[in-house]
Amino acid sequence: MTTATVTGKPDEPVVATRNYLTEEGVTLRSWLLTKDHKRIAILYTLSITFFFFVGGAAATLIRLNLVTPAGIFTPDIYNRLFTLHGIVMVWFFLIPSIPNTMGNFLIPLMIGAKDLAFPRLNLLSWYLYVGAGFLALFAILIGGVDTGWTFYTPFSSLYSNGYVVLALAAVFAIGFSSILTGLNFIVTTHRMRAPGMTWYRLPVFVWSNYATSVIMVLATPVLAITLMLVAVERLLRVGIFDPALGGDPLLFQHLFWFYSHPAVYIMILPGFGVISEIVPCFARKPLFGYKFVVWSSITIAIIGFFVWAHHMFVAGISLYAGLVFSLLSYVIAVPSAIKVFNWTATLHKGWISFDAPMLYALGFIGLFTIGGLTGLFVANLAFDVHVTDTYFVVAHFHYIMVGGMVSAYFGGLHYWWPKVTGRLYPEWWARIAALLIFFGFNLTFFPQFILGYLGMERRYYSYPPEFQAWNIFSSAGASVLAVGYALPFFYLGWSLFRGKRAGSNPWAATGLEWQTSSPPPAHNFDKTPTVTRPPYQYRPEPEPQDV
Ligand code: HEM
Ligand SMILES: [Cu+2]
Predict the structure, then answer these.
(1) Ligand 1 atom 1, closest CA
(2) Coil, strand or helix at 500
(3) Which has the closest alpha carbon to 314: 384, 390, 250?
(4) Is 481 in the pocket of ligand 1 (CB under 6 A)?
(5) Which of 122, 252, 336, 520 could disulfide-link to 153, CB 3.0 to 4.6 Å?
């Protein structure tokens, strides 16, 4: 078996007799004790979807509050709401989203392996995730944590009266889930590639998860120790961050962002990977500049460790430090720009079809570009002084994390849905949802650039009346967005039972994952594949008369 050159039509569906969904049994026990990477991916997908809707519900309430200048919730409830939203979305959705669902499912398939290197660790990381998730929900809902997802000291260590220690423990625990996943992916990519699967024949999706894993393994321990220090100061009153006790309040921000800037790349790099799979497939062209795309991921993973203090331009760091971090922040935009250029070049003269995964991918490219360009704005010292802690920053990171990352997640979900479930999703509905999400997203977040520029502060439950009009646009957009995100839930659920059967390769895609049946058998491949070609060997669709 090789990674094929694909020009023609997708193959006919054959109902796979043995597949991972039924082979090991269908009992709850067989699922909860499974070591199959594909089943663990499904467990992750279900739990991540749950947290996505919890985080989304909080977002809806936040936008509801901001429809009127006076707000409808008390300041205290509002603070808990954005804390709930931030903690759940960042740690229980964005960070694990693509790696733990699609990465888990696809990396072994894409490299021609039977499983990940450490199947038991993989299951353990899911249990850590779920345990931590419920602990976090308990702490926030019962204890009323109001620190924001960033846990800034001295508020978190001394003043906040919610169950902060419990929330810290939850994030600490999910950190270990993330580290285990990272380790697993790194070892798998090094050790388990099929014969002929050289590094430069790896799909970009594997490369970008590899780069992500390096960050997970190197940065997450810093977060863990930092959160532990907050708990130590809070419980034992040992001066670490509080000047009154002899600590340094800026130390927390340095440590926190030393993890959390690289973490923003944990969130986006896997998305880059998904887009790099979808664009060549639906443009019927090899990925333009494969090696550049690969190395830009690695470069991002490295430089990502040297820009953290751009979150602290107004926190009292020296002007010299500010200049250095500003410059480095410009530098890290280069590899991201390389990717956008390469995807665009792949589209150029491509044979483009606008199926739902491609709509998400195109949406990603546009929205990520806006997010990245406004990143350059805030990397500018003088401009950032003006917009720090305003809605401009909120808009910037939502363009990247929601417009970018969540679009990639949905794009990937649709693209690999036939592989994962053996069913096709209803294309028409999927396109409607993709368009709703795109328009809803822009209506929600573009006004926030304007609001931020005009001076509306983030994290307040009320605002001066002159900001109301833009806030109404934003809240209206949020309701469109909510419908857009809810739709797939219904039609994908429907397709599980009623969708047309998928063949092994409905998109006529290259890549090993499409060479095994849909859904794949528990052991992935009947015979270990041998790889003889680089990835993305697409050619344009043949003209009708050529067939
Ligand atoms: C193109 C490269 C990027 C540059 C130059 C950049 C620059 C910046 C800067 C300077 C800030 C701080 C602004 C302030 O607090 O006043 C910031 C905030 C932020 N950025 Fe970016 N960024 C980039 C890409 C990303 C990516 C890829 C993500 C996520 C996937 C991201 C997520 C965030 C988040 C979450 C914040 C706000 C954190 C908070 O205060 O809660 N950025 N960015
Ligand atoms: Cu940053």
Answers:
(1) 372
(2) coil
(3) 384
(4) no
(5) 252
